[in-house]
Design a protein that fits this description.
Blueprint: E1 3-6, E2 13-16, E3 25-29, H1 32-41, H2 44-47, E4 54-60, E5 64-68, E6 73-77, E7 84-88, E8 94-98, E9 105-109, H3 119-122, E10 129-130, H4 145-149, H5 153-169, E11 190-191
Parallel strand pairs: 3-10, 6-11
Antiparallel strand pairs: 1-2, 2-5, 3-4, 4-9, 6-7, 7-8, 8-9
Bound molecules: zinc ion (2 copies).
The site of one zinc ion has 9 residues, from loops.
Length: about 190
């Protein structure tokens, strides 16, 4: 199943090829960096759930294409060693998170998925919530028990690592919309200090 991708303005578009519940890993990340990223872009309200979670689908970069607006793709790092976090300059839509060049993983953020239809049907239900200890409690004053219990975060992370190794062995870090063959980012990362 190919899933269409696009920013809010529709300038940057792409495709996630062979994106199915089994080909990737859908999860919600509550870590403070995943919360800081959409906040910096001014998109916290549309990207984060009430407890600061981001709905992410992890897949191989070689299965993702940017077809229009590639010149609008920008990179942000929250620290020198942070993930490469990608977004669009036209409308500050977060695209996703990657490790450095040569690492095949992209965690596509739901805001960049433009395919009509329920994500639960397209990509399967979330396999779990990771970094729930960082979940924000300002919004509703509490983190519901169901969030803490939804899926074993260690099994989710294990699945992510297993997939990453398989993708690396298959050489699915290239071609990439984000890194050239030498592992250089297509857009120079802007590094945010704390
Ligand atoms: Zn995170
Ligand atoms: Zn845009």
């Amino acid at each position: 199943m190919d899933i269409s991708l696009g920013c809010e303005y529709g300038k940057v578009t792409g495709i996630a090829k062979n994106a199915t519940p089994s080909s990737g890993t859908r999860l919600s990340c509550y870590c403070s960096d995943c919360q800081a990223f959409p906040r910096h872009l001014g998109k916290a309200e549309t990207v984060l759930d009430p407890w600061g979670g981001t709905d992410i689908f992890q897949m191989a970069q070689a299965h993702m294409e940017i077809n229009t607006g590639a010149d609008q793709v920008r990179c942000l790092r929250l620290s020198e060693k942070g993930l490469h976090r990608w977004y669009t300059a036209c409308c500050n839509t977060p695209i996703g998170n990657t490790l450095g060049g040569g690492m095949p993983f992209i965690g596509i953020i739901h805001a960049f998925i433009s395919q009509p239809g329920e994500r639960d049907v397209l990509l399967g239900p979330s396999r779990g919530n990771v970094w729930i200890k960082d979940a924000s409690i300002d919004a509703l004053g509490d983190v519901p028990e169901s969030l803490r219990k939804g899926g074993n975060p260690y099994l989710v992370l294990l699945r992510s690592i297993r997939k990453l190794i398989v993708w690396k062995l298959k050489g699915l870090d290239q071609p990439s919309p984000f890194f050239d063959k030498n592992g250089k980012p297509v857009s120079d990362p802007e590094i945010l200090s704390a």
